Amino acid sequence: MNSKTVEIITIGDEILIGQIVDTNSAWMAQELNKAGFEVFQITSVHDEASHITHALDEALRRTDIVLITGGIGPTNDDITKKTLCQYFHTKLVFDPSVLENIKQVFANRLDFVFNDLTYSQAMVPENCTIIQNRVGTAPITWFEQEGKVVVSMPGVPYEMQEAMRNEIIPRLQTKFQTQKILHKTVQVFGYSESALAIKIADWEKELPDFIHLAYLPNYGIVKLRLTGTSDNLLSLEFAINQQIESLKQILGKAIIAFEDLPMEQIVGNLLAAQGKTIAIAESCTGGNIAHRFTSHAGSSEYFKGGVVAYANEVKTDVLQVTPEDLEKFGAVSQQVVEQMAKGALQLLRTDTAIATSGIAGPSGGTPDKPVGTVWIAVCIKEKMISRLFHFGNTREQIIQRTTQAALVMLKEIL
Amino acid sequence: MNSKTVEIITIGDEILIGQIVDTNSAWMAQELNKAGFEVFQITSVHDEASHITHALDEALRRTDIVLITGGIGPTNDDITKKTLCQYFHTKLVFDPSVLENIKQVFANRLDFVFNDLTYSQAMVPENCTIIQNRVGTAPITWFEQEGKVVVSMPGVPYEMQEAMRNEIIPRLQTKFQTQKILHKTVQVFGYSESALAIKIADWEKELPDFIHLAYLPNYGIVKLRLTGTSDNLLSLEFAINQQIESLKQILGKAIIAFEDLPMEQIVGNLLAAQGKTIAIAESCTGGNIAHRFTSHAGSSEYFKGGVVAYANEVKTDVLQVTPEDLEKFGAVSQQVVEQMAKGALQLLRTDTAIATSGIAGPSGGTPDKPVGTVWIAVCIKEKMISRLFHFGNTREQIIQRTTQAALVMLKEIL
């Protein structure tokens, strides 16, 4: 793939001490990919001049476009602007348009006070293009040298995003002829990453050079992402779809989705489309399935609620599991998990329900029901599916894999 | 503190196309900081041999310790192991102990099948130390050359975390640590990071050189971590405790904990100690509070369960909120959230209960109840506290900050 490459340099101690997670770079990479640019490397460095300079030298050796985030706040520990001045052998000059822009940005912000720090934002490098920050005080600076571009922008996510979307990416596209990039993802259930790799080995060998395959395992689901590059988006899409068609022949029902969305959103969209509602009865997942559904805006359209039935009394008192069956078969059993699902369906008066019961460990395992033993049931009014699984080792792993499997089973039944 | 510096190299196209956010590096940086190491640079590179080699060269020029995550899965796009073999001029040899470990890891996983790729995981570089992966298939490889250390570990978060905590950090400390390190953390509620920084500015200025302060904000709670280095652990502990005493004078009740544990564990331990049980009635948090409790082993001792009452019918049908009050005051009101708490307490027959109701957005806000408006109630048999909050902008932020505040309120009442 020979699309134009970009490097991202994020500046700030807070990333290097682990105080904040660098979500900016992932967002930028996604937007750049869509626009036909490829991120070659992401480098996080300290608020320290020589460190920044060295990273910039290195990056410009490898690529023509370097995007820098962070370190341009008004406080003293932010030194990116001064450092870039030295790097490009220029000096800071006062730019009234920046001050004017700041006045506009904060026109309706009664709490905003102008001070020396505000004015210092209007001091900008002389030989660069100034791009106004429409939502903050620090301007974006665009340097060009020997056909290469270095852009310095704020690290504040919404300020960076506004500048990238409306100014930086469009300008990069104008300056650099870029190829089209297309991603398509299929989600596969029931294979480990390695088992899947063997299953599709021959198909993978035959992939054309302009299509790249990536395996992205996620708690029992493996995403296969096909990425293609070409000047012709239509023929590229055709070629990728062809590959996906032959993948279907190999994997059949194991392919559970052709969209790159989390399972709860895929089944959520299905529920919404079918006008169905759902209730969750969770024992070993302890609320995680409900949490996954409700993390997404609009889930109230189909998600009515759930019962976290951790203690056995809750299974009997609230979900009407019969004490006899609980006694006879144990909490982690087909009988109990099916009664939990039916109980939730009736109690919350929904069209569908999911129930989980398993041994999340580390204790509670027995020879015949070791840690990781999980029963899952899904039902829609008259139909019920239940299945026994044996999941992983760690508590986290068992909770997440149970959640994924339950969502996949729900998709099957819908 | 003149602590040993580390560089992190994360390998994987998925980070560079923005498909996943690199949360590993932040986690590692935090743990390394606690252990007395400083991260100098984080570099994300492609699954590409020359790129990995170059990054490794660069990193080893700057530091003695390089930690590499990712790119050691069994599939073809994972090439880190081969690349490190070339880099350290060695070859792959079969290590039966790795295969033995994999058998143990997957002992409870009936769905796990051994195949060539599994065996390929047991092919390891000859001249390195093998650290077994206790929760996955890919072993950790530890290389040493001219007193410098390069460690390659999986990118799967829980596999990386298990290895870092139990093997890598202890070994790094043995090899490089000279001075003793001590951490004490106080958790502060009700201050933004910057407001807190102003409040304790004078105290912070007076901190001795051998005590380092870190602000760790986490959805409404700010952890203040004091890290001291010294040859004398006793006098160090005394000095840090003195600082915490004077911090108490400044912050008083705003200090909600002196342990570095998540709030759900702190209140969980309190509940266990008092022999009390808890039930959760969640609207806007949608199961997240239950999920937080049940993520921890042993939570079944005090956590009986909960009701996720997303739809209003669930509030009335299951939690016995009176339809009249729901109609009159709305779902996000003191009356309703208190009835939810009482309802959960009675339904699940527990000693304590938490209830949340709020507008998580992005839609659903009104002029008098904008997005971010949240009511929280906690009750223990005869006592009830409820409070109104106005939380953040994003859905994630509102859910997490509500969860934290609810746990803090529970701690107050216990």
Describe the structure concisely.
2 copies of one chain form a homodimer. Chain A has helices at 13-16, 23-34, 49-62, 80-87, 96-105, 116-121, 157-175, 193-199, 201-205, 233-251, 263-274, 288-294, 312-317, 323-329, 334-347, 395-413, and strands at residues 5-11, 38-45, 65-69, 92-94, 123-125, 129-131, 140-145, 148-153, 180-189, 211-218, 221-230, 255-257, 278-282, 303-309, 352-358, 373-380, 383-390. The first copy, chain A, has 414 residues and is α/β, with parallel strands linked by helices.
Please give a handful of descriptors for the protein shown.
five-stranded mixed β-sheet; homodimer; Alpha-Beta Plaits; 26% strand; 414 residues; six-stranded mixed β-sheet; alpha/beta; 41% helix; 3 domains; Molybdenum Cofactor Biosythetic Enzyme, Chain A; Maf protein; 16 helices
Provide an overview of this structure:
The structure is a homodimer of 414-residue chains. In chain A, strand 10 (211-218) and strand 11 form a beta hairpin. Chain A has 3 domains: 5-175, 3-Layer(aba) Sandwich (Molybdenum Cofactor Biosythetic Enzyme, Chain A); 180-257, Alpha-Beta Plaits (2-Layer Sandwich), CATH 3.30.70.2860; 263-413, Maf protein (Alpha-Beta Complex). A 6-stranded mixed sheet of chain A has the order 2-1-3-8-7-6, with helices on both faces. A 5-stranded mixed sheet of chain A has the order 14-13-15-16-17, with helices on both faces. In chain A, strands 10-11-9-12 form a 4-stranded antiparallel sheet, with helices on both faces. Helix content of chain A is 41%, strand content 26%. Chain A is elongated. In chain A, helix 2 (23-34) packs parallel to helix 7 and helix 11 (263-274) runs parallel beside helix 16. Chain A has helices spanning 13-16, 23-34, 49-62, 80-87, 96-105, 116-121, 157-175, 193-199, 201-205, 233-251, 263-274, 288-294, 312-317, 323-329, 334-347, 395-413, and strands spanning 5-11, 38-45, 65-69, 92-94, 123-125, 129-131, 140-145, 148-153, 180-189, 211-218, 221-230, 255-257, 278-282, 303-309, 352-358, 373-380, 383-390. Chains A and B meet through helix 2, strand 2, helix 3, helix 8 and strand 10 of A and helix 1, helix 2, strand 2, helix 3 and helix 6 of B.
